[in-house]
């Protein structure tokens, strides 16, 4: 029993207004303000929220929250982490309420160095997702989860071993191109909830490369691209289609510096999945714009 899906991500942001503008005008997320607090939760599906923005002096990734199926799965994973010598701490009642989950364990992921939470029992909303622009919505259902994260890591093999053998991920495929070396990992039918790339000059280990959200409609992404261009938000990779998961997407630079990928149409990993290897990340398009 390992991780079921990518559940939530929290971000410490120095420009909350710019983040709210990006996540509403481009991604159409629903804003949930907290009573008496400056932090803001963002909703994209039936879950109470998937992203949280915390105003801060400096931009950083806050917490990555991985969902497990049950209390038993949470306890089993907690024991597996402790067996690796990793300190875990249970989330307080206040923290569980803030995350809107039944219970969680918190630990520092030992290879990428990210603050990580594993949890079960996310709060579902009893009202429909109400997007802030006219979008079809997000492809998160059937256990697919929030989307995916991509990190630069120091030791590709050790990081891979941890996610495979402790957290229960499986390899989807590999892509190596130019001076990039990437491994894609799944924990449910989403092609990858996590990808790890070997660090290289200018891309130090522990840095979040991007968060991907997958639209239910190609038009959501197309209109989003036009909005990004009209607003002057930096496009980092032009629209294109990935070689491995066939995601059609583009990438923009967020106000925190890391990128977001807005995608549509990725294929799913089935029980007969066979691992492949690629020497370029795109079938077509995806021309790099930024550095
Ligand atoms: Fe991606």
Description:
It is a single chain. This protein has 291 residues and is an alpha+beta fold. It has 2 domains: 116 residues, Roll (2,3-Dihydroxybiphenyl 1,2-Dioxygenase, domain 1), CATH 3.10.180.10; 138 residues, 2,3-Dihydroxybiphenyl 1,2-Dioxygenase, domain 1 (Roll). The protein contains 5 helices and 18 strands. A hairpin with a 5-residue loop joins strand 15 and strand 16. It is globular and about 50 Å long. It binds fe (ii) ion. Fe (ii) ion binds next to strand 9 and strand 13.
List keywords for this structure.
291 residues; alpha+beta; 2,3-Dihydroxybiphenyl 1,2-Dioxygenase, domain 1; 2 domains; 10-stranded mixed β-sheet; 8-stranded mixed β-sheet; 5 helices; 36% strand; binds fe (ii) ion
β-strand amount: 35-45%
Distance between the termini: 40 Å
Residue-averaged pLDDT = 97
Unreliable stretches covering 5 or more consecutive residues: none
**Strand count:** 18
> Which of globular, elongated, flat, extended, rod-shaped describes the shape?
globular
CATH topology of the largest domain: 2,3-Dihydroxybiphenyl 1,2-Dioxygenase, domain 1
